[in-house]
């Protein structure tokens, strides 16, 4: 259960970072360091979400319900 909560919180942080990046894109210069930092944060959070999901799957905390995996 805690894995779902962590992934949801990180996903919300990704969406917030996307919004701040969009704001900086509209208000700042094109080569704004704030825009670049927003992109770095968004990529880092997305990679962290993927690592958590893969680690939880390998550890056995989450399972797939796909019917083609268990024939």
Can you describe this structure?
The longest helix has 27 residues, at 33-59. This protein is mostly helical. The chain has helices at 2-27, 33-59. α1 runs antiparallel to α2 (33-59).
Name its key features.
mainly alpha
Topology:
Blueprint: H1 2-27, H2 33-59
Helix pairs in contact: 1-2
What is the number of E strands? Answer: 0
Structural class: mainly alpha
User: What share of the residues does DSSP label as strand, in percent?
Assistant: under 5%
Runs in which pLDDT lies below 50 for 5 or more consecutive residues are none
- Indicate the radius of gyration in whole angstroms: 16 Å
Main sheet makeup: none
**Helical residue percent band:** over 70%
Spell out the helices and strands N to C.
HH
Average pLDDT over all residues: 90
Note the gap between the termini: 27 Å
Q: Globular, elongated, flat, extended or rod-shaped: what is the shape? A: elongated
In DSSP terms, counting alpha (H) and pi (I) runs of 4 or more, how many helices?
Answer: 2
Summarize the structure.
This protein is mostly helical and 71 residues long. The protein contains 2 helices and no strands. It has helices at 2-27, 33-59.
């Amino acid at each position: 259960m805690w894995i779902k909560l962590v992934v949801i919180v990180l996903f919300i942080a990704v969406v917030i970072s996307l919004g701040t990046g969009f704001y900086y894109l509209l208000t700042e210069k094109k080569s704004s360091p704030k825009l670049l930092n927003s992109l770095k944060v968004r990529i880092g959070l997305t990679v962290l979400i993927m690592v958590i999901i893969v680690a939880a799957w390998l550890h056995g905390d989450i399972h797939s319900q796909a019917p083609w995996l268990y024939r």
